[in-house]
Design brief:
2 domains; Glutathione S-transferase Yfyf (Class Pi), Chain A, domain 2; 10 helices; alpha+beta; five-stranded mixed β-sheet; Glutaredoxin
């Protein structure tokens, strides 16, 4: 085992965990990944983070990072080889963080309501989708102006949002394929069909089964 590697507790399909892994990979940060199930959480994870949700990153000196956006920011503070934080634009990082938090406050609750309406065959599915579409329209407009959500080049904003758009696209697949958001579909496909996503979504055996060291990232 390499000494002092950060430890990442993760769940394969959780959008928060996906964006944390994606950022760690993009920032070329090597970690020990511990795949978990939320109905059988490792005691070590609960000691580190009693809230019991993923992702959780344990870094040197037992510093605990419990929020996915904070994990992303930590990763790019270590190294940002593709300049995803647009470090030469003094206002870019704070602007992107504000946009991410606005998205989290508005779209994610609407997405959860939409998912529940579909799962439980509720009669307000269309209404829930329409709430989500307010954000989709805004993103489509951004992508009409430039290739990525913040500018012509990829950024922190893109990788923070795409896992949630992936989740949205899977609720009503046929509706999504025919939706009036061609730029958004093209942008999301760029991520889902890319080689980085394949690596980030690799399936790891559950850590509790044998507590084997599994390395993730470059």
């Amino acid at each position: 085992m390499q000494q002092n590697l950060p430890i990442l507790y993760s769940l394969q399909n959780c959008p928060y965990a996906i964006r944390a892994r994606f950022a760690l990979f993009k920032a070329q940060q090597r970690v020990l990944i511990r795949a978990v199930k939320l109905n059988n959480k490792p005691p070590e994870m609960l000691i580190a983070s009693p809230k019991g949700s993923v992702p959780v990153l344990v870094v040197e000196n037992y510093n605990i990072i419990e929020e996915s956006l904070d994990i992303m920011l930590w990763a790019f503070a270590q190294q940002d080889p593709q300049d995803l934080t647009h470090q030469y634009n003094a206002d870019a990082k704070s602007q992107m963080i504000a946009l991410i938090k606005h998205f989290e406050e508005n779209f994610i609750p609407a997405l959860e309501a939409y998912c529940c309406a579909k799962r439980y065959h509720e009669d307000n599915l269309d209404e829930c989708r329409e709430v989500c579409q307010k954000t989709l329209q805004s993103l489509e407009e951004k992508l009409t102006s430039h290739a990525f959500l913040y500018s012509e080049k990829e950024s922190l904003l893109d990788i923070a949002l795409f896992p949630f758009l992936r989740k949205f696209s899977r609720v009503e697949r046929q509706w999504y394929r025919n939706s009036p958001y061609p730029k958004l579909r093209q942008w999301l496909a760029f991520y889902l069909q890319g080689p980085t996503f394949t690596k980030v979504m690799a399936n790891h055996e559950l850590w509790l089964e044998n507590k084997k060291d599994i390395y993730f990232g470059k």
